[in-house]
Amino acid sequence: MSLDEMAGCLAELGHPTRLQILRYLVKSGHAGAAVGDIQEALGIPGSTLSHHLSRMVKVGLVEQVRESRTLHCFPRFEVIESIANFLMEECCVNEACAIDTDDDTSTAR
Amino acid sequence: MSLDEMAGCLAELGHPTRLQILRYLVKSGHAGAAVGDIQEALGIPGSTLSHHLSRMVKVGLVEQVRESRTLHCFPRFEVIESIANFLMEECCVNEACAIDTDDDTSTAR
DNA sequence: ATGATAATTCTATATTTCTAGAAATATATT
DNA sequence: AATATATTTCTAGAAATATAGAATTATCAT
Fold it and tell me: Which of chain B's ends, N or C, has fewer CB atoms near its CB within 10 Å?
């Protein structure tokens, strides 16, 4: 993934509603969730939701599979993972961070 | 960090120029880099650079320490790390990803 | 065919963001 | 005091984003 593509993904993640949507999809796991499910669960107007979803699909964060009238959405786990890795490796580990954070500031693990 | 704060950080990361800036800062390590260094190294006009830096400072991705005329900038490694962790944990690990990727797609670790 | 359901596209408005030159501020040097 | 250096703030125009109602498309059921 190029720097621009990476920035593109991060930008799409960088919106509260979209982050909420992605979280919901992750929670739904591999079964995914229909657009309508998301809409009802999060209370987002259809047109707004559609807009956000299409942006996430565009950068590859979300995948959609149509089953007749219903459109199922899935998070692209590998993509999310590679973004997390990018942040860890490219932006963190080099001579800092993992070395420097002697007490574990990071939340869980 | 709240979901909104997380989204705020991700949004700031989600700009090619800012991502470049952050990378440069990380490369510079704990010595940090002066605004002028960044400006010269990346060829970004001062006002533009200042704008991007102030955004990153605002969400806590970057810290600045003034030393007379020179303003040194440092990446907040813990913040970057916690974003990476959020993506891994909150958005990835739950019943998917780490479980599902039988061959280790993630580069390091 | 008609009606219901699922979702998108169209449209418009409000708001934010990006960009960079010009002017201003703050600090150091002579 | 005058000048140079480092950086920010001001300004403004262009472009992108976000929001959501209304209209539209596609599919299914009767």
Answer: C
